[in-house]
């Protein structure tokens, strides 16, 4: 197995904690940790993994953490500069980007500037900033390993291809359909926060779980796939697959289809990002096909789950539009989670931003961040008007 030293951005979250589970089991050292404000968990992680450096975005929380771990040599940093320092630690050989939202973009760009290999979970970074991230990764010849389960599946399915760009016909991106699969808009108008947070197959952070319920997650993942695998929107087909056993598939020019399957457990793609192209022993059971009996497939309902169509339109328009739509969704989901808006208002607000934003082609980082900021403000004004 490769000798890695990990920096984990977003170490206290769902992906972050599972990354540390894998690091613990494989005995991979961890040199950097970063989080937003959960210093109780971060302290426990520091005491276990003894990183060189840890960062907390919130200044007051960072000061508190510094006090708590003053018996240890770990350097405690704060703010966005601290998070970027963890992303660029000289000791780090693989940077896990597991921060949620566009907040992951700047640390990811900083890691790229330091020629780091990346294990990318943070899909919003590519949705908003793929036009900056991907050309720079390619120009520098860096490793960018997808962690998102579908994209890891596509990556693994393409590993044997001699000429993947020429031979790939299409990507079959699987979608669970979320907790509200089969519901009408009338029924969706009454769903509650706790219903949206009950994903049928995966245990994940709150924001991505709501995205799965609106199918925004699948829209974000289409855009993520475009950037990672250099395909157009028309080469990606979303297939509803309720069981989340097939994590995605690729169809080649001869119609041969290769897929990656497994139980829904993020520690599998996380581990593969660390060990690839090799594999390591993992305890526990695998898929029992006889017990499953059958697997189901269907088409997504774009009329009911409008966030998916919004993302497809945004991707086709390009420029700053995906950043605006992503920013609108981040704000709308935050409002929904705080009980300020209903479930259906999420796609209405995202749609309103899609209609109102004038995208800038080939944007700079500043223009991407401005589009995100503008979309958030627009959502706030629209929602206050109601
Ligand atoms: N969870 C999953 O199974 C999957 C997640 N992903 C993607 O991975 C990313 C992370 O998701 P998930 O783990 O579910 O999210 P969580 O909400 O569980 O965790 C988010 C992590 O990011 C930290 N964080 C939030 N904002 C900032 C910031 N501004 N600066 C530094 N750290 C910050 C949080 O710190 P704190 O705890 O202190 O708030 C926490 O550690 C998302 O982009 C998601 O779409 C992709 C596939 C599967
Ligand atoms: C685990 C993972 O990668 C999530 O993105 C998951 O795929 C969500 O599932 P659906 O969006 O298909 O419900
Ligand atoms: Mn996914």
From TrEMBL:
It comes from the Bacteria. Its cofactor is Mg(2+); Mn(2+). GO terms for biological process: isopentenyl diphosphate biosynthetic process, methylerythritol 4-phosphate pathway involved in terpenoid biosynthetic process. Its EC number is 1.1.1.267. It comes from Feifania hominis. Mn(2+) binds at residues 148, 150, 221. NADPH binds at residues 12-15, 38, 122, 124, 205. Residues 144-229 form the 1-deoxy-D-xylulose 5-phosphate reductoisomerase C-terminal domain. SUPFAM superfamilies: 1-deoxy-D-xylulose-5-phosphate reductoisomerase, C-terminal domain, Glyceraldehyde-3-phosphate dehydrogenase-like, C-terminal domain, NAD(P)-binding Rossmann-fold domains. InterPro entries: DXP_reductoisomerase, DXP_reductoisomerase_C, DXP_reductoisomerase_N, DXPR_C, DXPR_C_sf, NAD(P)-bd_dom_sf. Catalyzes the NADPH-dependent rearrangement and reduction of 1-deoxy-D-xylulose-5-phosphate (DXP) to 2-C-methyl-D-erythritol 4-phosphate (MEP). Belongs to the DXR family. NCBIfam families: Dxr, PRK12464.1. Residues 261-378 form the DXP reductoisomerase C-terminal domain. This is 1-deoxy-D-xylulose 5-phosphate reductoisomerase. Residues 6-130 form the 1-deoxy-D-xylulose 5-phosphate reductoisomerase N-terminal domain. The gene is dxr. The lineage of its organism: Bacteria, Bacillati, Bacillota, Clostridia, Eubacteriales. Keywords: Isoprene biosynthesis, Magnesium, Manganese, Metal-binding, NADP, Oxidoreductase. Pfam families: DXP_redisom_C, DXP_reductoisom, DXPR_C.
């Amino acid at each position: 197995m490769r000798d890695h030293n990990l920096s984990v951005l977003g170490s206290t979250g769902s992906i972050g904690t599972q990354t540390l589970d894998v690091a613990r089991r494989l005995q991979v050292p961890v040199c950097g940790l970063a989080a937003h404000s959960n210093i109780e968990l971060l302290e426990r992680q520091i005491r276990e993994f003894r990183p060189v450096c840890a960062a907390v975005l919130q200044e007051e929380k960072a000061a508190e953490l510094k006090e708590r771990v003053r018996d240890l040599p770990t350097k405690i940093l704060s703010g966005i500069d601290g998070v970027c320092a963890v992303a660029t630690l000289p000791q780090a050989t693989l940077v896990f980007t597991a921060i949620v939202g566009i907040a992951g973009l700047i640390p990811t760009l900083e890691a790229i500037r330091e020629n780091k290999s990346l294990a990318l979970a943070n899909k919003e970074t590519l949705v908003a900033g793929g036009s900056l991230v991907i050309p720079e990764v390619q120009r520098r010849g860096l490793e960018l390993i997808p962690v998102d389960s579908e994209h890891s599946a596509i990556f693994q399915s393409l590993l044997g291809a001699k000429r993947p760009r020429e031979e790939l016909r299409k990507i079959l991106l699987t979608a669970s359909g979320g907790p509200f699969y089969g519901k009408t808009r009338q029924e969706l108008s009454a769903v509650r926060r706790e219903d949206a947070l009950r994903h049928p197959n995966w245990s994940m952070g709150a924001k991505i779980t709501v995205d799965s319920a609106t199918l925004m997650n699948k829209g974000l993942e289409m855009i993520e796939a475009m950037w990672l695998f250099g395909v157009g929107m028309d080469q990606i087909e979303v297939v509803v697959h309720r069981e989340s056993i097939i994590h995605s598939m690729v169809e080649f020019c001869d119609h041969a289809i290769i897929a990656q399957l497994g139980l829904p457990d993020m520690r599998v793609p996380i581990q593969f990002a660390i060990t690839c192209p090799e594999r390591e022993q993992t305890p526990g059971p695998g898929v029992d096909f006889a017990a499953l009996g059958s697997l189901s497939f269907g088409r997504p309902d774009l009329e009911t789950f409008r966030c998916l169509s919004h993302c497809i339109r945004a991707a086709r328009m390009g420029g700053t539009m995906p950043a605006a739509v992503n920013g609108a969704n981040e704000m709308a989901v935050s409002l929904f989670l705080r009980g300020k808006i209903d479930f259906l208002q999420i796609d209405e607000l995202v749609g309103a931003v899609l209609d109102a934003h004038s995208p800038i082609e080939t944007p700079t980082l500043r223009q991407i961040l401005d589009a995100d900021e503008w979309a958030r403000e627009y959502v706030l004004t629209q929602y206050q008007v109601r």
